[in-house]
Amino acid sequence: MDFVFLEDSEWKSLGEFISTKWRNKKLVILCDENTETYCLPRLLAENPDMLSGTEIISVPPGESSKSLALVEQLTLALNDLRIDRNAGLICLGGGVITDLGGFLASVYKRGIPFINVPTSLLAMIDASVGGKTGVNAGILKNQIGTFNHPEGVFVYPAFLETLPILEKKSAYGEILKHALISSVENWNHLKDIGELDEIGPKEIITSMQVKAEVVQQDFKEGGVRKILNFGHTVGHAIESWSIATSRPLLHGEAVAWGMVVEAELSKSVGLPLEQFVEIEATVRNLFEPIVLKTSDLNDLISLMGADKKNTNEQLGFVLLKNIGNPVFDQFIDSEKVLSSLKKVFEL
Ligand SMILES: NC(=O)c1ccc[n+]([C@@H]2O[C@H](COP(=O)([O-])OP(=O)(O)OC[C@H]3O[C@@H](n4cnc5c(N)ncnc54)[C@H](O)[C@@H]3O)[C@@H](O)[C@H]2O)c1
Asked: What is the pTM of this model?
């Protein structure tokens, strides 16, 4: 992971990178209105010489900024600023900015170099690493995108001081996932911490490393990269279902509960009962319970991709043979999935 630089309080890696590798480049910083307020002043204050003359572009925060319409507007804005292929784009923000900025950098004048300076916990441990960039097509997430690595990822955990607690909590779901698919040691460490506040540079770098190592083996998701989807078949369904409820769930919360259901299913491929119990207890301890009705279950199965009229239809999962030993392309009858949902949500 030689492209990832973790800095706790010093800013020298980014300064060194810019003054050596990007010495003659015109720089553009892409941020959203929140990272412009909370993170940009800090970045500029720490790097006054290097960043003087840099163009700043700020977009509205939130998922709606991941759109082709905004990419077109940004293209025109960059063109007005006379940004050419010799420029460098710095994506300063959460996953929305690293996805949007990475995509913009992939297509603007057929491609300009970019680096990520992630400011949310999710972007630090997940979105900024792995080279997937993209925008949404209407309600369809990430349907337009590229595989394109940034030239560097510069992580400053101090940015997390201003990140809302719910955003941190959501990222915790993905941190737990990285531990579960990587090793018992990583899992035990997190399980023993048990507190969101205790997540610091050590845990961030470990989690990034898990993702980077998986991506290194399978950049374009032909096989093993699929293990990063543990918890996501059920998690995505719960997330979509919750949109119509009084409390829409954050992605990481939905994934955390998705992991409990998929851990329950994992007993069929050998996950020991005591490991399932640990996973379930950890999620119950960290995340608010989800209240489902029996009538919601068929909707969840449909959202997972199965037609509820066809009860024998199979659904694809990543399962755990053991903590740290995931297997992908596991197909399970929707009836069995229904039964695991009932057990976990006590219906
Ligand atoms: N490319 C990938 O591999 C990958 C992986 C996971 C997620 N994603 C994408 O990432 C996005 C979610 O990322 P996210 O959770 O970071 O969301 P986000 O970028 O919307 O950030 C969450 C909120 O926190 C604010 N924020 C960010 N940093 C802040 C800071 N330091 N202080 C104060 N406020 C701050 C943002 O303005 C935003 O309002 C989704 O679009 C998802 O699809 C991509």
From this structure: 0.94
